[in-house]
Amino acid sequence: MTEVIDTATAMGRPIRRKEDARLLHGQTNWTDNIQLPGTLHMAILRSPMAHARITNLDVSGALKMPNVVAAFGAAELGELNGSVPCVWPVTDDIVMPAFPALAVDKVRHVGDCIAVVLATDAVHAADALEAIQVDYEPLPAVVSMESAISEGSAFVHDDKGTNTCYVYNLGGGYDEAAAKADVIVKRRFINQRLIPAFMEPRCVVAAPMGMSDEITIWTSTQIPHVLRVLLALVTGIPENNLRVVAPDVGGGFGGKLQCYREEILVTQLARKLGRPVKWTETRSEDMVATHHGRDQIQDIEIAATSEGKMLGLKVTLLANMGAYLQIITPGVPLLGMFMYPGIYKMDAYDFKCTGVFTNTTPTDAYRGAGRPESTYAIERIVDELAAELGMEPMELRKKNWIKHEEFPFTTVAGLTYDTGNYEAATARALELFDYDGLRAEQAERRASGDPVQLGIGISTFTEMCGLAPSRTLGALKYVAGGWEHCTIRLLPTGKVELVTGTSPHGQGHETAWSQIASSILGVPVEDIEVIHSDTGRSPYGMDTYGSRSLAVGGQAIKKAADRLVEKARVIAAHQLECSVEDIEFVNGSFRVKGDPEKAQPLGAVAFEAFTGHNLPPGVEPTLSAEATVDPEDFSYPHGTHLAAMEVDTETGKVKLRKYVCVDDVGVQVNPMIVEGQVHGGLAQGIAQALYEGVIYDEDGNLKTASLADYLLPSAMDLPSFITDTTVTPSTTHPLGTKGVGEAGAIASTPAIMNGIVDALRPLGVNDVTMPAAPMTVWRAIQAAKAGGAA
Amino acid sequence: MHISVSVDGTLYEADVEPRTLLVHWLREGIGKVGTVVGCDTSNCGACTVLLDGRSVKSCSVLAVQADGSSVTTIQGLSDGNEWHPVQTAFKECHGLQCGYCTPGMVMSTVDLLSENPNPTEAEIREGLEGNLCRCTGYHNIVKSVAYAAELMGGSTK
Ligand code: FES
Ligand code: FES
After folding, report:
1. Contact, B98 vs A199, CB < 8 A?
2. Quick check: helix, strand or coil at residue A166?
3. pLDDT tens across B61-86, in order?
4. Which atom of ligand 1 is nearest to the CA of B48?
5. How far is A321 from A358, CA to CA, in rounded Å?
6. Segments forming the whole domain that contains residue A63
7. Cα dist. B34→A33, A543, B11 in Å?
8. Which residues cross the membrane (chain B) (predicted)?
């Protein structure tokens, strides 16, 4: 299956993935495949209650069970009971509660960890949990955000005396803008809680290696590099003694962007017991213990003139933190903060976010992290404004969006969008969609009173990728930087090792990064090995999340490759006995300008650098180059998504009939991978609109605690998509790339919901809550009929 | 209990606890870690293998139930160099991203195409309903199955 690729054109081609051979033959190294001799398996006793005081905990019964070696509660664990870190204290006065790996005195959400058992096999470890004695004093569960911040609520963290985590304000001036407005539209949107539900459950193995003092941790994570730093800080184990490896990782979507308590526990126990410790979560554990995403109540207000010129936007959020703060829990709404104005020009923007503690699983990043929420709010409210003004929703957008000739454009939120062409992406999408034809059909169905109405949903979105220039992150009080690293080593045989700090879990970095390096070095794609996700082999990195891997990591690859060529050029010039200025590098070969016969392939230069027999004075043997790049700015992919929704007004049943999207993600390294990323994002965004939603009952019990209850879409629940792209290169990134990991998930949710509301608007419906299950839609119709819009 | 099962062409004799699931025996008992576990409610299909030629979720079968049978996993689908057409099609059509659902998707597809060599898109989607994928949105999986049908001599309608 080896393909021979013309290296000069490796960039931009839909090259089939290198990763696939092993994945398609079951030759994969999932963390759960690792079975070390003498391993102890950890099982976790989790709280069945949302909020309770632990009045008694006795783990001694478990020790008498077969195959059990040890058992720990917080008391037994003592000072090894590390605290789960949060690296984004968004305000100076943020309330940051302790988050011990094993709960001390109180449990604060269903699934909170109370005790662990270690046995020589996983089955007996799980069995022994039943022998642990716990007495609880139930406390009132704080479940809804609004009740959490109302007078008289119980506190999730008693010592803090409040359930408000922080209040963040940005902007100002909305009131003046609103005073000049002819029209003001207000809506409350509920951006419901979701579960990342990557298919590979989490798993951690930690083992003292007996080589110096090294402890190696294999874990199903998106962030081996960041995790190593955090585990060192949390456990006190010297960072140089920790090696973190993310083997093949089965999806993440932000859910594996975390320093989980289970990772801390496994590491600490391996260290304490001096033998390998392993924990693999069950899916039921995953549903309560892996962080959740979204969960905002959004009060949105937009002010405009009667001609449809937008004047200002006011955003007031309640953001659910859950019971504790995890790695970037408080920061997630702020990642959306800058994007509420979307692609539109306006004069004023007020933003206020209140972070709220509740007795629920902690929230954190889930595909898009903050930007799906902001995009949903702006794209929904623009449709509502259009309805209020009696304008065609696409016309209203066109009237207010930033025109392509106006870039770079500094938005009212203070970001400078470098490039974009909303006109081009929209024109292409309208054409693929047959917008006019579908509008005509809609008119017919309305006129004939067809019980199945047709709605057209629009989402013209932008987002920001490539978290981010380090100085920007610093200004936002984020504790880490946004750079990325790459080292490229040319081996004596002409093969290449490309060491990246990004950490893929399905994105195909091994293929795409090879394409970038191939196109610069002229080395065949198959001769480049991409080394990643192991702090022992790739020591520097900031990992993979926020669509940053290409946007930032790609720049580092280019810079390292360019540097390597310059180093090699000096050696080649010496070999060819001419000056460096007279050498050109074409298709992997150094040639004397004007005399292409005199050439030295890169591989020959590499061998020379290896033997060191004939190097120019001052040049050291071996040939490698590295680069660490801090991006100049974010990048701003955009696109136009259109959904044709059929809504049965009698049953509330909704059908997605056609979905078209045209995304502009800048220059594409591998369009096949780009398209795949878009598809996957669409599925998740559409699922938020139609299927998924976490439900807690009033006692804080998770009602959607398995894949039988939480509706991940199957192949039956989704259509094929019609996708295309326009290419407006980013000007802040040397490769012209932007990022694509989250675009589909960000853009699609409002497209679907706008379509449903559009279908029902003649009935008086002006909002439908997500997920738009038949009963929910049917109720919205009934409520509208009864006179009160939902 | 004693079982005797042929897995990917090799005969295994083993003693297992009656409650051991087939998937756990495959993974932990004989090291066939190509087959994976994605849930505990028989919803995801990641664990799908062929049992006497028909696809089953190996998390919902006891190891003892496989006694005397023949199991094919993703690791036994191709013989050495020759890829199975379903594997080829998934690579060609980018029908996988993280690859965690892939063993199950591929094995379900093999079964689906043996039942119906010329499936429509709707039939493909229905046939794979028991296999969840969180990465691909199914678009390219559906394309992969259709292309596999073509490679295997059928054609999709
Ligand atoms: S592991 Fe999910 S169906 Fe078998
Ligand atoms: S490819 Fe990741 S779950 Fe299907």
Report:
1. yes
2. strand
3. 999 999 999 999 999 999 777 999 99
4. 4
5. 7
6. 34-139+199-251+256-289
7. 9, 26, 18
8. none
